[in-house]
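Below is a filled-in request sheet from our internal design queue. Each sheet records the structural input a requester submitted and the sequence that came back. We keep these sheets so that new team members can see what a complete request looks like end to end.

REQUESTER: design group, bay 2
PRIORITY: normal
MODE: inverse folding
CHAIN LENGTH: 457
BACKBONE (tokenized):
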């Protein structure tokens, strides 16, 4: 597992006044922790060989970049990288650029307009990643280790390396699709690994930070302290180059408000391999508008993004027959802010092969609280080509749960299995027709489970 940059030794050198920060024309830097400023102090460039004692030199471009001209690294790929040479705006262990406006609280009206861009070049050899490293702290810290969140944006990588922690999902942001990784090493590390390599990126900082907040890994009250772009080499690294870098407060708008929660999804047209979801539209008061919706699906406890839609409907295909799935929807606005997840709908696909009396069932979680919930509608549909004279829905009631009421149906409970049957007015269904029922249940206080495994016969 890769470890994030722990630069305590840098802070010590700075405190002792041993960290030279020349303001003259950009040099070639070979000192282990050497740095310089470019563009009259607007950015700082650091060599930052924090994880190895091997040689590394960078040729600094006064226009705003650098090239690794020498790198003799040969680190194991299951451990930490050798270094993080980078160009940055803001403060890093008391080494601050000028005019960045950082630290800045992420709740500030100006935060949504913060924007950065980078252009990079890559060699064909070596083992490395090309990544932004964006730091947040609960306080407006200018020195020492940040303890809030470290957001890493991997534009490219080469070799068998991976970020801290484990993958927790995928997301579409800033014109690309990214794997999302999470780990904690004394602070939260949220890494976005591009699924198709890129050599440039132009984005608002809030685009990725809003996604991290929506996942519970960061807080709007924290402070952005620095925006860094560079490389983590394990093996070699010569030839890696930042051709251009920028950080500014213009062009991104000031929208830091998440869209409203989408309406509860419902499912229809469920077959053995697909289902169609529809939901109520979200609204956005931040000014950038709702840009689309993420469809989240789970077969166990963990939801993962399986698709997106710019409308309020989505057909999920490639499903397995006789399998129960749960779905939630979340909205995303033009600035990358993400809404809370919608209520959950439970869908059980039909058995393979269909037939004259096949029956499908979908269940929607309408409301939940600490010790109870309401499930409605539970929709029963005759997907066959002939009439059904009756239907039976079964599902699993989690341990400790008790049904306190049901409407539009009758039920019995045996062990943890609930059996529901239609009433005189809705038991018979013509081909293609449907009906619905609902129920309320209690559960142990704080238990977040709801019933699953709905089947229909």
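RETURNED SEQUENCE:
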């Amino acid at each position: 597992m890769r470890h994030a940059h722990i630069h305590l030794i840098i802070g010590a050198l700075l405190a002792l006044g041993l960290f030279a920060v020349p303001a003259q024309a950009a040099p070639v830097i070979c000192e282990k922790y050497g740095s310089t400023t470019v563009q009259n102090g607007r950015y700082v460039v650091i060599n930052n060989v924090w994880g190895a004692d091997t040689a590394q030199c960078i040729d600094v471009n006064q226009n705003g970049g650098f090239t690794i001209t020498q790198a003799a690294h040969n680190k194991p790929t299951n451990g930490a990288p050798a270094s993080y040479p980078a160009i940055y705006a803001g403060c890093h262990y008391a080494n601050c650029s000028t005019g960045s406006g950082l630290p800045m609280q992420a709740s500030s009206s100006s935060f949504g307009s913060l924007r950065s861009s980078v252009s990079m070049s890559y060699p064909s050899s070596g083992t490395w990643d090309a990544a932004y490293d964006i730091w947040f702290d609960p306080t407006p810290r200018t020195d020492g280790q940040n303890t809030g969140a470290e957001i890493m944006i991997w534009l490219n990588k080469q070799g068998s390396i991976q970020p801290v922690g484990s993958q927790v999902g995928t997301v579409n942001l800033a014109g690309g699709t990214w794997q999302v990784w999470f780990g904690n090493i004394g602070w939260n590390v949220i890494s976005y690994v591009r699924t198709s390599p890129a050599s440039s990126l132009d984005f608002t900082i809030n685009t990725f930070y809003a996604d991290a907040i929506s996942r519970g890994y960061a807080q709007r009250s924290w402070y952005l302290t620095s925006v860094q772009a560079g490389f983590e080499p394990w093996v070699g690294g010569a030839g890696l180059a930042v051709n251009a870098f920028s950080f500014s407060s213009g062009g991104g708008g000031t929208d830091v408000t998440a869209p409203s929660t989408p309406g509860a999804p419902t499912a229809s047209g469920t077959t053995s391999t697909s289902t169609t979801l529809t939901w109520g539209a979200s609204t956005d008061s931040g000014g950038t508008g709702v840009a689309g919706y993420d469809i989240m699906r789970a077969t166990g406890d963990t939801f993962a993004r399986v698709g997106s839609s710019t409308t309020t409907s989505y057909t999920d295909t490639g499903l397995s027959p006789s399998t129960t799935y749960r779905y939630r929807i979340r909205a995303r606005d033009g600035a990358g802010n993400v809404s809370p997840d919608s209520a959950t709908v439970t869908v059980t696909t039909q058995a393979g092969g269909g037939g004259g009396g096949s029956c499908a069932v979908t269940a929607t979680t309408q409301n939940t609280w600490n010790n109870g919930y309401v499930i409605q509608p539970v929709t029963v549909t005759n997907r066959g080509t002939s009439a059904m004279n009756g239907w039976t829905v079964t599902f699993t009631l989690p341990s400790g749960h008790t049904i306190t009421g049901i409407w539009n149906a009758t039920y019995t409970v045996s062990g943890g299995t609930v059996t529901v049957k239609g009433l005189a007015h809705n038991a018979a269904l013509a081909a293609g027709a449907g009906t619905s029922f609902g129920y309320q249940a209690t559960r142990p206080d704080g238990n977040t489970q709801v019933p699953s495994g709905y089947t229909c016969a």
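SHEET NOTES:
- Confidence is low (pLDDT under 50) at residues 1-25, 353-357.
- The chain has three domains: 8-248, 257-315+326-336, 354-457.
FILED BY: M.R.
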